[in-house]
Amino acid sequence: MDTETGLERKFARFGDGLEVQDGSVIAGYASLFGAVDQGNDVVEPGAYAASLAALGEKGARVKMLWQHDPTQPIGTWDEVREDGKGLWVKGRLLDSVAKGREAMALIEAGAIDGLSIGYRTRKATKNSKGQRLLTELELWEVSLVTFPMLPSARITAKSEETDLDRSLRDMAAAFEGARAELARR
């Protein structure tokens, strides 16, 4: 834990990576509910809900970083959501950023396939096994990492983004911006 900011990060060494497809779009679970990680922590369902809602209200996004380094953003997470399994993310590596190109090459080679969260614990309890049950987290970032703390936090899909994908995303952003402007009036 960073004692100055209270920000926690999770790293661990384990297992084999997944094969990924060509392209710049990546997706996977950055956190799984009910899974015990290498730090003896367990994220409970709903732990991210308040944080994601607060980010949405501000129009802010969870950052995509390289190895939890705040000086090295490498892309953007277009979707970050909780589902019945955990925290699912989908985003784009930026090929206009040197580290983004490097990350793409490493993912394509199978050298990197881990995802890891950077967060601040808001609410937690201990269970009878001594595990910390994380019930509310303030999510700051999701990083591509060599060694995630949770072995199953992996990139599960990577694909080429099409012109249609970019156009639809840009149109959705324009509509969202117009909706926000109308709501302010």
Automatic annotation (TrEMBL):
GO biological process: proteolysis
Alphabetized SUPFAM superfamilies for the sequence: Herpes virus serine proteinase, assemblin
Top-level taxon of the source organism: Bacteria
GO molecular function, one term: peptidase activity
Residues of the Prohead serine protease domain: 21-162
Keywords: Hydrolase, Protease, Viral release from host cell
NCBIfam families with a match to the protein in the record: proheadase_HK97 (TIGR01543)
Protein's name according to its UniProt entry: Phage prohead protease, putative
UniProt organism field: Roseobacter denitrificans (strain ATCC 33942 / OCh 114)
